From TrEMBL:
The chain crosses the membrane at residues 7-26. Pfam families: Sulfate_transp. It is found in: Membrane. It comes from the Eukaryota. GO terms for biological process: transmembrane transport. This is SLC26A/SulP transporter domain-containing protein. Its main location: membrane. It is a multi-pass membrane protein. GO terms for cellular component: membrane. Residues 1-52 form the SLC26A/SulP transporter domain. The keyword Acetylation does not apply.
Length: 58
């Protein structure tokens, strides 16, 4: 299946890899920041508010 990548443009491959990296990084925020109530419906604004609140309270 690796030969199929030869038919994709470099920009498409880079975009896919960047999207995968961002997705994985966001999924790791829960453990990294110690967020308890993190679900699929949690938006990034709530995560950042929770993270900043945790940082201020120690």
């Amino acid at each position: 299946l690796g030969f199929l990548v030869d038919f994709l443009s470099h920009a498409a491959i880079v975009g896919f890899m960047a999207g995968a990296a961002v997705t994985i990084a966001l999924q790791q925020l829960r453990g990294l920041l110690g967020i308890e109530d993190f679900t699929r419906e949690t938006d990034i604004v709530s995560v950042m508010k929770s993270a900043s609140g945790s940082a201020h309270h120690g």
